[in-house]
Predict the structure of Carbon-nitrogen hydrolase family protein.
Amino acid sequence: MSAVVKAACVQVSAGTELQPNLDVAGDLVRRARDAGAEFITLPENVGWIVQGRAKTMARVKTEAEHPGIPFFADLARETGAWILAGTLGVLQDDQRVANRSYLFNPQGQAVSHYDKIHMFDVDLKDGESYRESATFRPGERAVVAATPWGGVGMTICYDVRFPYLHRALAKAGASIITAPAAFTVPTGRAHWHTLLRARAIETGCFVVAPAQTGTHDEGRQTYGHSLIIAPWGEVLADAGEGVGVITADLDMARVEEARRMVPALNHDRDFVVVRDGF
């Protein structure tokens, strides 16, 4: 197992069409590899961002037909890096869409994938409204993928608000948790850094969170600030608001160090909830 791995977050501002977005992503992945990154991650919806079910269904492909999958497979072979291909929309048999994150090894094999479990169905006070469940089918399995530097627990965006998922991933062997995202600006400003730092601290994992940034279809805005966070909660790199790449060295010894200092993963207890006075 490698003691140290250089990880990268690629931060993009996806438009509505697949190929131009892939071209930009590919150039940034190569830039990350030139900077020495061995584990390169991309954001949620790296293929395209569109608003509404009709636009999504007009673009989505089955896994067998999706051009993004061989694109990232070829890119992994070309660069010799492990690549987390953010998420791609994959059409399912029930005519809903899996928001699916793929992990490719340097041989271009998709060694693991994870479908977003928690659907972003919210109404924000500024009038923004989202109903992911109208188009997307929630996943039903948590995933830890084996890599040369340890287990990688895979999550996506809104999953960050569910600590039990991250705890389960850590207990199942994750030392790194990935969180590709397209966070809104209001929720990003309020919660993004706090939530991701909390997930790192609670689990004693590195958190690698590549994010979308800028203005997208129909004026939707995303927060940016891709983050790489250490197991003790320190922010090792923050991409700010621009398109680009950040990197950080992940010293895997820090995982055991953090868990040894505060071994909370070993301290679970059963309990009952009592409602007094209701």
